[in-house]
């Protein structure tokens, strides 16, 4: 398949750069297994799920991973912590007028925390901090909100660019699992009261989620690597849900990638798994876990658009997206949501 197969025109004014006042106030476009779309509100998710169904949610927490600093010469730099290795060492993106070499020293904050570049790991810099990284992020870091917001992080993002169920011990993402941003505690309580189950997996979202696909033939694209953890207990719940004929609903592409990675690593068996995943899901992929997907509206020609097309079809998704544009749905991280049903279940 060609990259251009996943293109569509998106007016700039449909990009949601700020959240709605209430998390669950967004709209919901339901794309059913027959490829028909239905205009709803997100709270209608209560009517679309059945007792015994299982929601799979990503409990990662977003780090204040963006740091402003300077070189020894005074030139401005920006350090984005992508993945911590040990408390003082991380793999990072660095923006500077010239790419820093091994041995270069950068300085963060008024007390000039020293950051030393020690080498490269693929497209990232290996850097050593003179103070514990999490302490530095807490003191000087900013939330790394998506580039298409075209603004700096603001106070509103501190709460709204995190899920209500994020796990503080899993502070390691540089982007939010945005489908989960639609859930407030009241809606979660209502789902639980209806008998809809939930389980948590972890995938630490990397900045690679925003990288464009640069190959015309999408099968030549190499996915970025992200760490995930899917417990045996979560996979057992998934297995039991399927056995009784209920549906497994992944909340977001990250929960999808985590659970499908675990199944893939175990040869299709529904067992727990922890590790780095580079799974690339595009049309033709056979899902082992996910029956339905709650997700936001994604960028043209993105791997996320390819993933949702794999669960339905590319034709169904693009028709739904054209409808969403015509009806002025809000796009991307702070935008509206979709519920996509697998065409395999029709």
Automatic annotation (TrEMBL):
A GO term for molecular function:
S-adenosylmethionine:tRNA ribosyltransferase-isomerase activity
Q: What are its E.C. numbers?
A: 2.4.99.17
Which UniProt keywords are given for this protein, alphabetically ordered?
A: Cytoplasm, Glycosyltransferase, Queuosine biosynthesis, S-adenosyl-L-methionine, Transferase
- Known catalytic reactions: 7-aminomethyl-7-carbaguanosine(34) in tRNA + S-adenosyl-L-methionine = epoxyqueuosine(34) in tRNA + adenine + L-methionine + 2 H(+)
UniProt-listed InterPro entries: QueA, QueA_dom1, QueA_dom2, QueA_sf
Where does it localize? Cytoplasm
Question: Would the keyword Zinc turn up in this protein's UniProt record?
Answer: no
According to UniProt, this protein's pathway is: tRNA modification; tRNA-queuosine biosynthesis
EC class name:
transferase
Q: Which NCBIfam families match?
A: PRK00147.1, queA
Q: What does this protein do?
A: Transfers and isomerizes the ribose moiety from AdoMet to the 7-aminomethyl group of 7-deazaguanine (preQ1-tRNA) to give epoxyqueuosine (oQ-tRNA).
Q: Which family does it belong to?
A: Belongs to the QueA family.
Q: How does it assemble?
A: Monomer.
Protein name, as recorded = S-adenosylmethionine:tRNA ribosyltransferase-isomerase
Lineage start? Bacteria, Pseudomonadati, Pseudomonadota, Gammaproteobacteria, Moraxellales
